[in-house]
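User: Please run a holo structure prediction.
Assistant: Happy to. Please share the sequence and the ligand.
User: Here you go; the ligand is zinc ion.
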Amino acid sequence: MFASVDVGGLNTGCALATRAGNMVAERTIPTQAHEGAQAVLGRIADTINEMATEAGGHVRALGVGVPGLADYHRGRALFLPNLPGHWRDVPVTDVLAARLRCPAFLLNDARMAALGELWYGHGRTVKTMVFLTLGTGIGGGVVIDRKLRLGPLGAAGEIGHQTILPDGPPCGCGNRGCLEALAGGPALTGEGVRLMTSGQAPHLRELVAGDAGRITPKNMAQAAAQGDAAVRGAIVRAGRYLGIGIANVITVVYPELVVLGAEVAEVGELLVETIQREVRERVRMFPIDRVRIETSMLKDRAALWGGLALAIARAAKLPGHPESGEHPDAALTIDCPDR
Ligand SMILES: [Zn+2]
Protein backbone atom coordinates (compact mmCIF):
# COMPACT_ATOMS: atom_id res chain seq x y z
CA MET A 1 0.00 0.00 0.00
CA PHE A 2 0.98 3.62 -0.54
CA ALA A 3 0.05 6.61 1.60
CA SER A 4 -0.65 10.26 0.90
CA VAL A 5 -0.89 13.31 3.17
CA ASP A 6 -2.09 16.78 2.16
CA VAL A 7 -1.25 19.26 4.93
CA GLY A 8 -3.52 22.31 4.90
CA GLY A 9 -3.80 25.35 7.16
CA LEU A 10 -6.93 23.98 8.87
CA ASN A 11 -7.26 20.33 7.90
CA THR A 12 -4.96 17.55 6.78
CA GLY A 13 -6.12 14.81 4.43
CA CYS A 14 -4.68 11.29 4.74
CA ALA A 15 -5.21 8.41 2.31
CA LEU A 16 -4.09 4.86 1.63
CA ALA A 17 -4.24 3.27 -1.80
CA THR A 18 -3.03 0.26 -3.72
CA ARG A 19 -0.37 0.52 -6.41
CA ALA A 20 -3.18 0.29 -8.99
CA GLY A 21 -4.66 3.49 -7.55
CA ASN A 22 -7.60 2.09 -5.61
CA MET A 23 -8.14 4.23 -2.55
CA VAL A 24 -8.73 1.90 0.40
CA ALA A 25 -8.99 4.41 3.25
CA GLU A 26 -9.30 8.15 3.66
CA ARG A 27 -9.41 10.36 6.74
CA THR A 28 -9.37 14.09 7.44
CA ILE A 29 -7.84 15.34 10.69
CA PRO A 30 -7.55 18.89 12.05
CA THR A 31 -4.00 20.19 11.39
CA GLN A 32 -3.83 22.12 14.71
CA ALA A 33 -0.74 23.86 13.37
CA HIS A 34 -0.46 26.10 16.46
CA GLU A 35 0.94 23.05 18.32
CA GLY A 36 4.07 23.14 16.14
CA ALA A 37 5.57 21.02 13.39
CA GLN A 38 6.65 18.09 15.61
CA ALA A 39 3.13 17.66 17.05
CA VAL A 40 1.53 17.93 13.60
CA LEU A 41 3.91 15.38 12.07
CA GLY A 42 3.46 13.03 15.03
CA ARG A 43 -0.32 13.14 14.65
CA ILE A 44 -0.02 12.47 10.91
CA ALA A 45 2.23 9.44 11.54
CA ASP A 46 -0.17 8.07 14.19
CA THR A 47 -3.11 8.48 11.81
CA ILE A 48 -1.40 6.73 8.89
CA ASN A 49 -0.24 3.91 11.20
CA GLU A 50 -3.79 3.47 12.52
CA MET A 51 -5.27 3.46 9.02
CA ALA A 52 -2.70 0.89 7.81
CA THR A 53 -3.40 -1.37 10.80
CA GLU A 54 -7.17 -1.16 10.18
CA ALA A 55 -6.67 -1.89 6.48
CA GLY A 56 -4.41 -4.83 7.37
CA GLY A 57 -1.53 -3.65 5.21
CA HIS A 58 1.97 -2.23 5.26
CA VAL A 59 2.82 1.24 3.90
CA ARG A 60 5.57 0.96 1.28
CA ALA A 61 6.04 4.71 0.66
CA LEU A 62 4.43 8.03 1.57
CA GLY A 63 3.92 11.27 -0.42
CA VAL A 64 3.39 14.51 1.54
CA GLY A 65 2.26 17.93 0.28
CA VAL A 66 2.73 21.17 2.20
CA PRO A 67 1.50 24.71 1.46
CA GLY A 68 4.64 26.70 0.71
CA LEU A 69 8.30 26.37 -0.17
CA ALA A 70 9.52 22.80 0.25
CA ASP A 71 12.87 21.32 -0.75
CA TYR A 72 11.75 18.28 -2.68
CA HIS A 73 15.25 16.83 -2.96
CA ARG A 74 16.05 16.99 0.78
CA GLY A 75 12.48 16.49 2.03
CA ARG A 76 12.49 19.64 4.16
CA ALA A 77 9.81 22.32 4.53
CA LEU A 78 11.65 25.64 4.13
CA PHE A 79 8.93 28.25 4.58
CA LEU A 80 5.19 27.71 5.02
CA PRO A 81 3.90 31.28 5.36
CA ASN A 82 0.36 30.31 6.34
CA LEU A 83 1.25 27.98 9.21
CA PRO A 84 2.24 29.25 12.67
CA GLY A 85 6.02 29.14 13.12
CA HIS A 86 6.39 28.98 9.33
CA TRP A 87 8.10 25.54 9.49
CA ARG A 88 11.55 26.88 8.62
CA ASP A 89 13.87 24.01 7.65
CA VAL A 90 11.70 21.25 9.14
CA PRO A 91 12.93 17.74 8.14
CA VAL A 92 9.45 16.49 7.24
CA THR A 93 10.41 13.31 5.40
CA ASP A 94 13.04 12.25 8.00
CA VAL A 95 10.50 12.55 10.82
CA LEU A 96 7.73 10.71 8.96
CA ALA A 97 10.02 8.04 7.48
CA ALA A 98 11.33 7.20 10.97
CA ARG A 99 7.83 7.01 12.47
CA LEU A 100 6.31 5.02 9.59
CA ARG A 101 9.40 2.92 8.78
CA CYS A 102 9.04 3.59 5.04
CA PRO A 103 10.46 6.13 2.59
CA ALA A 104 8.67 9.50 2.51
CA PHE A 105 8.72 12.17 -0.21
CA LEU A 106 7.79 15.85 0.05
CA LEU A 107 6.35 18.26 -2.50
CA ASN A 108 4.69 21.67 -2.56
CA ASP A 109 0.92 21.05 -2.46
CA ALA A 110 0.12 22.75 -5.79
CA ARG A 111 2.79 20.69 -7.56
CA MET A 112 1.38 17.61 -5.85
CA ALA A 113 -2.14 18.47 -7.08
CA ALA A 114 -0.74 18.88 -10.62
CA LEU A 115 0.80 15.40 -10.33
CA GLY A 116 -2.54 13.99 -9.14
CA GLU A 117 -4.38 15.50 -12.09
CA LEU A 118 -1.70 14.18 -14.44
CA TRP A 119 -1.89 10.58 -13.19
CA TYR A 120 -5.54 10.25 -12.26
CA GLY A 121 -7.51 13.22 -13.66
CA HIS A 122 -7.94 15.15 -16.90
CA GLY A 123 -4.19 14.91 -17.48
CA ARG A 124 -4.23 11.16 -18.09
CA THR A 125 -4.49 11.55 -21.86
CA VAL A 126 -2.27 14.60 -22.51
CA LYS A 127 1.47 15.13 -22.84
CA THR A 128 1.68 18.78 -21.81
CA MET A 129 -0.39 20.44 -19.11
CA VAL A 130 -0.49 23.50 -16.86
CA PHE A 131 -2.21 23.34 -13.46
CA LEU A 132 -3.26 26.35 -11.41
CA THR A 133 -4.53 26.46 -7.82
CA LEU A 134 -6.26 29.45 -6.27
CA GLY A 135 -6.41 29.76 -2.50
CA THR A 136 -4.62 31.95 0.01
CA GLY A 137 -1.85 31.71 -2.56
CA ILE A 138 -1.87 31.00 -6.27
CA GLY A 139 0.15 27.87 -6.98
CA GLY A 140 0.87 25.82 -10.03
CA GLY A 141 2.61 23.02 -11.81
CA VAL A 142 3.91 22.62 -15.35
CA VAL A 143 3.99 19.25 -17.10
CA ILE A 144 6.00 18.79 -20.30
CA ASP A 145 6.03 15.45 -22.12
CA ARG A 146 4.40 13.80 -19.09
CA LYS A 147 7.12 15.02 -16.74
CA LEU A 148 6.18 17.35 -13.90
CA ARG A 149 8.87 20.02 -14.00
CA LEU A 150 10.38 20.51 -10.51
CA GLY A 151 13.72 22.27 -10.88
CA PRO A 152 15.99 22.99 -7.90
CA LEU A 153 14.01 22.71 -4.60
CA GLY A 154 11.02 21.50 -6.64
CA ALA A 155 10.05 25.16 -6.93
CA ALA A 156 9.41 25.39 -10.69
CA GLY A 157 5.86 26.26 -11.72
CA GLU A 158 5.18 29.20 -9.38
CA ILE A 159 2.62 30.68 -11.77
CA GLY A 160 1.23 32.97 -9.06
CA HIS A 161 4.49 34.90 -8.74
CA GLN A 162 4.82 36.22 -12.28
CA THR A 163 4.61 40.02 -12.44
CA ILE A 164 1.33 41.24 -13.94
CA LEU A 165 1.40 44.92 -12.83
CA PRO A 166 4.93 46.44 -12.54
CA ASP A 167 3.97 48.81 -9.71
CA GLY A 168 1.15 46.72 -8.29
CA PRO A 169 0.54 45.80 -4.65
CA PRO A 170 3.34 44.12 -2.65
CA CYS A 171 3.39 40.33 -2.66
CA GLY A 172 4.39 37.95 0.15
CA CYS A 173 7.35 36.82 -1.99
CA GLY A 174 8.93 40.30 -1.90
CA ASN A 175 8.02 41.38 -5.44
CA ARG A 176 5.24 43.81 -6.42
CA GLY A 177 2.28 43.19 -8.69
CA CYS A 178 2.45 39.37 -8.70
CA LEU A 179 -0.63 37.52 -9.95
CA GLU A 180 -1.13 36.25 -6.38
CA ALA A 181 -1.13 39.78 -4.94
CA LEU A 182 -3.78 40.82 -7.48
CA ALA A 183 -6.05 37.79 -7.73
CA GLY A 184 -5.32 35.46 -4.78
CA GLY A 185 -8.01 34.72 -2.19
CA PRO A 186 -7.00 37.51 0.24
CA ALA A 187 -6.80 40.08 -2.60
CA LEU A 188 -10.32 39.18 -3.74
CA THR A 189 -11.89 39.06 -0.27
CA GLY A 190 -10.03 42.25 0.70
CA GLU A 191 -11.79 43.97 -2.18
CA GLY A 192 -15.09 42.45 -0.98
CA VAL A 193 -14.51 43.95 2.49
CA ARG A 194 -13.73 47.35 0.97
CA LEU A 195 -16.86 47.30 -1.18
CA MET A 196 -19.08 46.21 1.72
CA THR A 197 -17.77 48.78 4.17
CA SER A 198 -18.08 51.56 1.58
CA GLY A 199 -21.74 50.64 0.96
CA GLN A 200 -21.25 49.28 -2.56
CA ALA A 201 -22.20 45.67 -1.79
CA PRO A 202 -25.66 45.45 -0.17
CA HIS A 203 -26.25 41.80 -1.12
CA LEU A 204 -22.83 40.79 0.18
CA ARG A 205 -23.55 42.60 3.44
CA GLU A 206 -26.78 40.62 3.81
CA LEU A 207 -25.10 37.29 2.97
CA VAL A 208 -22.45 37.69 5.69
CA ALA A 209 -24.71 39.58 8.12
CA GLY A 210 -22.30 42.52 7.98
CA ASP A 211 -19.38 40.40 9.27
CA ALA A 212 -16.31 41.16 7.11
CA GLY A 213 -14.56 38.05 8.48
CA ARG A 214 -17.11 35.83 6.75
CA ILE A 215 -16.50 37.19 3.24
CA THR A 216 -15.22 34.50 0.85
CA PRO A 217 -14.75 34.42 -2.94
CA LYS A 218 -17.73 32.05 -3.04
CA ASN A 219 -20.20 34.34 -1.25
CA MET A 220 -18.86 37.26 -3.29
CA ALA A 221 -19.89 35.30 -6.39
CA GLN A 222 -23.35 34.79 -4.86
CA ALA A 223 -23.64 38.53 -4.16
CA ALA A 224 -22.59 39.28 -7.74
CA ALA A 225 -25.29 36.93 -9.05
CA GLN A 226 -27.85 38.68 -6.85
CA GLY A 227 -26.99 42.06 -8.34
CA ASP A 228 -23.97 43.60 -6.57
CA ALA A 229 -22.38 45.16 -9.68
CA ALA A 230 -19.23 46.33 -7.87
CA VAL A 231 -18.61 42.83 -6.48
CA ARG A 232 -19.16 41.40 -9.94
CA GLY A 233 -16.57 43.90 -11.19
CA ALA A 234 -14.06 42.69 -8.59
CA ILE A 235 -14.50 39.05 -9.64
CA VAL A 236 -14.20 39.93 -13.33
CA ARG A 237 -11.02 41.91 -12.61
CA ALA A 238 -9.51 38.94 -10.73
CA GLY A 239 -10.56 36.65 -13.58
CA ARG A 240 -8.88 38.91 -16.12
CA TYR A 241 -5.62 38.92 -14.13
CA LEU A 242 -5.77 35.13 -13.86
CA GLY A 243 -6.49 34.89 -17.59
CA ILE A 244 -3.49 37.10 -18.40
CA GLY A 245 -1.25 34.96 -16.16
CA ILE A 246 -2.47 31.76 -17.81
CA ALA A 247 -2.15 33.28 -21.30
CA ASN A 248 1.50 34.10 -20.53
CA VAL A 249 2.15 30.49 -19.53
CA ILE A 250 0.29 29.18 -22.61
CA THR A 251 2.43 31.42 -24.83
CA VAL A 252 5.60 29.90 -23.35
CA VAL A 253 4.55 26.26 -23.04
CA TYR A 254 1.69 25.78 -25.61
CA PRO A 255 0.05 23.06 -23.52
CA GLU A 256 -2.79 20.84 -24.65
CA LEU A 257 -4.57 21.36 -21.36
CA VAL A 258 -4.88 23.96 -18.61
CA VAL A 259 -6.50 22.69 -15.40
CA LEU A 260 -8.01 25.13 -12.93
CA GLY A 261 -7.98 23.77 -9.36
CA ALA A 262 -11.16 23.09 -7.41
CA GLU A 263 -11.19 26.49 -5.70
CA VAL A 264 -11.60 28.31 -9.04
CA ALA A 265 -14.63 26.17 -9.94
CA GLU A 266 -16.05 26.73 -6.46
CA VAL A 267 -16.13 30.50 -6.97
CA GLY A 268 -18.35 29.81 -9.96
CA GLU A 269 -19.00 30.23 -13.66
CA LEU A 270 -18.39 33.99 -13.70
CA LEU A 271 -14.72 33.54 -12.73
CA VAL A 272 -14.16 30.48 -14.95
CA GLU A 273 -15.76 32.13 -18.01
CA THR A 274 -13.85 35.38 -17.48
CA ILE A 275 -10.57 33.45 -17.35
CA GLN A 276 -11.42 31.54 -20.54
CA ARG A 277 -12.41 34.73 -22.39
CA GLU A 278 -9.30 36.62 -21.31
CA VAL A 279 -7.03 33.76 -22.39
CA ARG A 280 -8.64 33.77 -25.87
CA GLU A 281 -8.11 37.55 -26.07
CA ARG A 282 -4.47 37.45 -25.02
CA VAL A 283 -2.91 34.55 -26.90
CA ARG A 284 -2.64 35.77 -30.47
CA MET A 285 0.56 34.22 -31.79
CA PHE A 286 -0.93 30.82 -32.52
CA PRO A 287 -4.35 29.17 -32.58
CA ILE A 288 -5.47 27.95 -29.17
CA ASP A 289 -8.81 26.36 -30.05
CA ARG A 290 -7.23 23.02 -29.12
CA VAL A 291 -5.94 24.25 -25.75
CA ARG A 292 -8.58 22.94 -23.36
CA ILE A 293 -9.21 24.87 -20.15
CA GLU A 294 -10.96 22.61 -17.64
CA THR A 295 -11.69 22.61 -13.94
CA SER A 296 -10.07 19.77 -11.96
CA MET A 297 -11.60 16.32 -12.36
CA LEU A 298 -10.37 15.37 -8.88
CA LYS A 299 -11.73 18.54 -7.27
CA ASP A 300 -10.35 19.25 -3.78
CA ARG A 301 -8.69 15.79 -3.64
CA ALA A 302 -6.22 16.43 -6.47
CA ALA A 303 -3.31 16.89 -4.03
CA LEU A 304 -4.25 13.74 -2.09
CA TRP A 305 -4.21 11.74 -5.32
CA GLY A 306 -0.95 13.45 -6.21
CA GLY A 307 0.66 12.25 -2.98
CA LEU A 308 -0.12 8.67 -3.99
CA ALA A 309 1.36 9.28 -7.44
CA LEU A 310 4.46 10.79 -5.79
CA ALA A 311 4.88 7.81 -3.44
CA ILE A 312 4.41 5.29 -6.26
CA ALA A 313 6.69 7.15 -8.71
CA ARG A 314 9.48 7.67 -6.19
CA ALA A 315 9.30 4.18 -4.67
CA ALA A 316 9.92 2.85 -8.18
CA LYS A 317 13.17 4.86 -8.29
CA LEU A 318 14.65 3.59 -5.04
CA PRO A 319 17.98 1.76 -5.27
CA GLY A 320 17.44 -1.96 -5.76
CA HIS A 321 14.19 -1.48 -7.64
CA PRO A 322 14.33 -2.81 -11.23
CA GLU A 323 13.30 0.61 -12.69
CA SER A 324 15.78 2.66 -10.67
CA GLY A 325 18.17 3.57 -13.53
CA GLU A 326 17.69 7.35 -13.71
CA HIS A 327 18.28 9.91 -16.43
CA PRO A 328 20.53 12.77 -15.15
CA ASP A 329 17.56 15.19 -15.29
CA ALA A 330 15.26 12.84 -13.39
CA ALA A 331 15.84 14.64 -10.11
CA LEU A 332 14.33 17.77 -11.64
CA THR A 333 11.19 16.07 -12.91
CA ILE A 334 8.72 13.39 -11.90
CA ASP A 335 7.80 11.05 -14.73
CA CYS A 336 4.31 9.84 -15.31
CA PRO A 337 3.91 6.66 -17.35
CA ASP A 338 1.92 6.98 -20.59
CA ARG A 339 -1.62 5.79 -20.16
ZN1 LIG B 1 4.92 37.07 -5.50
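The first strand starts at residue 2 and ends at 7.
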